[in-house]
Design goal:
Order of helices and strands: HH
Shape: elongated
Strand content: under 5%
Number of domains: 1
Oligomer: single chain
Number of helices: 2
Length: 83
């Protein structure tokens, strides 16, 4: 028995042409928000920069590995469909 998926009628998002860059930009913005939040709340800016940088590196590495796997699977599927 296969799992059933709900179809909400929302179209699939278009595939980005720069998945690596887009992922890194989003994580950079989130890291910046961590530093800004620490500054606004009077926290330790140095510690916030270190934590934000560490989280950025770990999240980026994980996402890049994941994107690479997804792109390889898509390429294999596209290659399998061609005669």
């Amino acid at each position: 028995m296969s799992p059933r998926r709900l179809n909400w009628g929302v179209p699939d998002a278009p595939r980005t042409t720069h998945p690596y860059r887009d992922t890194l930009v989003v994580y950079a913005l989130l890291a910046g928000l961590v530093v800004v939040f620490a500054w606004v709340t009077g926290g330790d800016i140095g510690r916030a920069v270190i934590v934000a940088a560490a989280v950025f590196v770990v999240a980026s590495a994980w996402s890049l590995v994941r994107w690479r796997r997804i792109l390889r699977q898509r390429a294999a599927e596209d290659g399998a469909e061609r005669p």
